[in-house]
Amino acid sequence: MKYLLNKTVFSLAIAGISMLSGNLSAQFLGGHRLKSDEDGPKGQFMVYGSLDYSKLTTPSSSSSTVSSAPLGVGYFINNNDLIGVNYAYSQNTVDHNVVYKQNEAGIWYSPSLMLGKYFVLIGQVDAHYVWGQQLSTAADAMQNFNGFRLRAYPLIGILLGGGWALKFKFAELSMLQTKTKEEGWTKNYVAGISGSTFGVGISKNLDFRKKIKNDN
After folding, report:
1. Alpha-carbon distance values, 50 to 34, 53, 68, 104 (Å)
2. Which CATH number fits the domain that encloses residue 176?
3. Across the strands, what pairs with 126?
4. Which keywords does the record carry (predicted)?
5. Could you list the residue range(s) of the whole structural domain that residue 88 is in?
6. pLDDT at 141 (0 to 100)
7. Is residue 24 part of a domain?
8. Does any domain span residue 25?
9. Nearest to 47 by CA among 192, 173, 141, 167
């Protein structure tokens, strides 16, 4: 019961922060939401994501990390809000041996505010199921884990034309909980602005709606 209560409180906190940040942004940054009768992306799909690779080599060892920020597909339910599904993967390798790999998939919701003609302030909330394997130092073998992640973060989007946009993430509030049979639950929280909360991605809007021909 306590576990479910903590999840509910955290989810409500994220929702409240997201709505509050949207209202404050609209007030202080001059942002505005597109009206339903304005020309906008309602009814379009959006695909987005990014891939990252890093490697560290020393005289005695080497390590590398491969990861994908959530790769997602969303649908514009109106000119300002999207809902969709996404997937992320990360893998750490030390001396050519995999020591950690994680998958996560789930649903997301993203409201937005236009800041002028070419910039947009975006919020995103993710709810993910998490699973993977990690190296157990006690057993010297890979062990399975699973859990969940709740995450909320803001982005600044730059509209490039043709449905393309660059997205810059600059903060994060998240909770990751995973468990193994041997060790039980492990909790990891992120809140604020730091190097690990920055990220860059790209998105593309896709319009599959039938075009209405104008005979005039």
Report:
1. 27, 10, 6, 15
2. 2.40.160.20
3. 108, 151
4. Signal
5. 39-206
6. 83
7. no
8. no
9. 167
Tell me the pLDDT of the chain averaged across its residues: 83
pLDDT in tens, 121-141: 999 999 999 999 998 876 678
Angle at 155 between CA 191 and CA 171, to 5 degrees: 15
HEC readout, 142-203: EEEEEEEEEEEEEEEEEEEECCEEEEEECCEEEEEEEEECCCEEEEEEEEECCHHHCEEEEE
Query: Which residues 6+ apart lie within 8 Å of 210 measured at CB?
Result: none
**Apex CA 47: angle with CA 42 and CA 49, to 5°?**
140
Decide if 166 is inside a domain.
yes
Instruction: List the beta bridge partners of residue 216.
Output: none
Residue 168 is assigned to a structural domain of this protein = yes
Into how many domains does the chain fold?
1
Rounded mean pLDDT, 46-60: 87
| Whole-number Å distance between alpha carbons of 133 and 95 | 17
Rounded to an integer, what distance in angstroms lies between the CA atom of residue 203 and that of residue 86? 13
Give the whole-angstrom CA distance, residue 78 versus residue 94.
46
d(CA 45, CA 207): 6
Q: Give the count of beta carbons closer than 10 Å to the beta carbon of residue 113.
A: 21
Write b or e for each residue in 156-182: b if 16 or more Cβ atoms lie within 10 A of its Cβ, otherwise e: ebebeeeeebebebebbbbbbbbebee
